């Protein structure tokens, strides 16, 4: 199916402080998950959904990211000389994957501010925002579903997942109303990282958005919120509250998501994804079985 959305924005300018010192000289989106940087999985997801036009919003240490999606001529010629076709194809994989563009964020003033930097590139059209540290399993089709809901309802769309109430304070949390579709809700309220025990629901916003250009003037007016940052959640709240007919909808995602921005979840993501691979899975699963025994008393 062809969608009205053609462009993807991937903000990768955050400081990644939860991952220091690994992120001292490397964007956290470049940390490897098994053997690929997290952000490559995200670009592959965009391409699978038919959106190969990708704008990265970059910050400090952007070189590693740019180099990853560019040719690596010296490395390629060495592998070619060795006749190592397999590794050569791995090097080339990320180069031709998408049509990539870059814009600098300047100061890391928050996700909302990073999205604002894409305004000229998306040129008055709706666009998708994919967070580079959130991986959605390739067997699940969240982005495609969100694009469909955007096209059918002419609305902004956020991805929502049920989380354990003890984890709600780590996310943006939504107040919602049901629609006639089981996996689609109307978003009535949003709060970024609510104080523990005050979350209005257990539906957390995860790193996929399909946004209409109406978000930009709202972002321009949005004052710094939680953490002194311009929050995308706050701008979406303004839109959600503005109209009774629902300018923000949520797609409830019940599939597999790997959060690579958090250390524990990052380790889990590596184990889960490696355990399912044909090359690494058998060895890892056998070792894991033995390893867990060592914890049992
Ligand atoms: P996070 O909330 O995970 O923040 O950003 P962070 O600064 O990257 O990481 P920690 O919390 O310090 O460890 C969510 C997404 O928004 C991007 C990040 O790169 C990440 O993909 N972001 C955040 C920006 O691009 N710019 C910002 O100013 C803030």
Q: How would you describe what is shown here?
A:
- The chain has two domains: 7-261, Spore Coat Polysaccharide Biosynthesis Protein SpsA, Chain A, CATH 3.90.550; 262-297, no CATH class.
- Helices cover 35% and strands 23% of the residues.
- The chain has eleven helices and 13 strands.
- The protein has a five-stranded mixed beta barrel with strand order 8-11-9-10-12. A two-stranded antiparallel sheet has the order 2-3.
- It is globular, with a radius of gyration of 20 Å.
- The relative contact order is 0.16.
- The model has no long low-confidence stretch (mean pLDDT 94).
- The chain binds uridine 5'-triphosphate.
Characteristics:
23% strand, 5-stranded mixed beta barrel, single chain, alpha/beta, 297 residues, Spore Coat Polysaccharide Biosynthesis Protein SpsA, Chain A
